[in-house]
Amino acid sequence: MRFDAQTLAARRARLYEQLGDGAVMILRAGAPKMRSHDTDYRFRAHSDMVYLTGFEEPDAVAVFAPGRSAEQGGPFTLFVRPRDPKKEQWDGRRAGAEGAVDLYGADRGYDLAQLDEELPKLLEGASELHIELGRDSAFDAKLHCLLAGLRRRRGKPPANPSVLRDPRDLIQAMRLVKSDDEIAWLRRASEISAEAHTAAMRACRPGMHEYELQALIEYIFARRGATAPSYNTIVGAGANATILHYIENRDPIADGDIVLIDAGCEFNFYAGDITRSFPANGKFTPAQRDLYQAVLDAEIMGIGMCTADNSWLDVHEATVRSLTQAMVDMGLLSGTLDELIETKAYEKYYMHKTGHWIGIDVHDPNPYYAGGHAAKIPNGAVQTIEPGLYIPADDESAPAELRGIGIRIEDDVLATAAGPEVLTKACPKAVSEIEALVGSGYTLTLP
Ligand SMILES: [Mn+2]
């Protein structure tokens, strides 16, 4: 278990308070997914499940029923895969029903086989059920049968929850403001990610392949104890950098290319997310430098706006304004600034939003709107700021020297009462710093 028992118990107590005694919430860890024939992708449990239980095994089902007293078994029930020495020999250890209680603090632990029998009992008398539908059709069908069965009971008090709600509404709002522990893990994920990017810039020289930089980055993630990249590492050289989510990473890096690396690690479940763009040969051309500086100016301005006075949309709109002006100045767009913004003409070269919440998911699904308005940035929330400009190689309307260049610069920013704190600040981004760093050499040493 990677969260301590107290942290988890405190999170559940907050959840119970918001759920109220009449509600029941069901969360599921999810199932492994096939990668090829009989081998699966490495499993990672659903973030909400991990956040509230710390339980990482596949297929687990957690049921939270705040209204159940200790005599009734208590509010937290965990259904898990049974102990099985033969299967554990092949696929790893299992906590089992006993471990669910002893190691994970469940009030009751059951084998998954008992779910059909026990779940109706847990739902009895609940007025409201929080369950995410549409993720697993077999589970949805089971639940529909169960609810229909509860409704059919004649001559007995009503036993069915009559309101269905999505658990994400409650939990994702809880996850927006990070605790000190969470900030420490995000900070560590940011530091490791920054070290990896810095190493990649040092190591880069024309003639290498994109995958060599990916390998170095992911080596540093693993070496520093990160469990995995928090998303597929993007290393795009030249025109590949204009593809937002380019993950093939197979091409050689040419002299004169800008290399865009978007990579971050997951440390104790929490994500880092950094993008840097740099000249493969260590020296920006004047056109590359103009484009880079325009994005950097917008990024630094956006970071400065990560305070409780602003919404994420305020930050986005200010960034769009700054980048659109730069696009006019560089001959990419023509027209008045207001008109180009109004008609979204800037989307030709800047087609994504300026950032996203980050936490236990790299795109932390915390609320972006509250009461119909873009959500303000509360102190304790962490978000990325990541403006970019992408000029397709075949865009004949763009100045020739700008074609086939992609620039994105991304940092992870914690909003605090004292102002924005850049968690990824160890990763250089000023033009002079980048030019000094790229190609300066990185020697891989094994400890
Ligand atoms: Mn990002």
Protein architecture, described:
With 447 residues, this protein is an alpha+beta fold. The chain folds into 2 domains: 5-174, Creatinase/prolidase N-terminal domain (Creatine Amidinohydrolase, Chain A, domain 1, 3-Layer(aba) Sandwich); 180-437, Alpha-Beta Complex (Creatine Amidinohydrolase). It is built from 13 helices and 21 strands. It has helices spanning 5-19, 47-53, 85-91, 96-102, 115-123, 137-152, 167-174, 180-203, 210-223, 286-304, 312-329, 337-342, 431-437, and strands at residues 23-28, 34-36, 39-40, 61-64, 76-80, 108-111, 128-130, 163-165, 228-229, 234-237, 258-263, 265-267, 270-271, 274-279, 369-370, 373-374, 382-385, 388-391, 405-408, 411-416, 419-422. A 6-stranded mixed sheet has the order 6-5-4-1-7-8, sandwiched between helices. It has a 3-stranded antiparallel sheet with strand order 9-12-13. Strand 7, helix 6 and strand 8 (163-165) form a beta-alpha-beta unit. The longest helix is centred in the middle third of the chain and has 24 residues, at 180-203. It is globular. It starts with a helix and ends in a 10-residue tail after the last helix. The structure holds manganese (II) ion. The site of manganese (II) ion (MN) has 5 residues, from loops.
Small ligands present: manganese (II) ion
Indicate how many domains the architecture comprises: 2
- The CATH architecture category of the largest domain equals Alpha-Beta Complex
Can you tell me the CATH class of the largest domain? Alpha Beta
Task: List unreliable stretches of 5+ residues.
Answer: none
Count of alpha/pi helices: 13
As for the CATH topology of the largest domain, it is Creatine Amidinohydrolase
**How many strand segments?**
21
Q: For this entry, what is the oligomeric state of its chains?
A: single chain
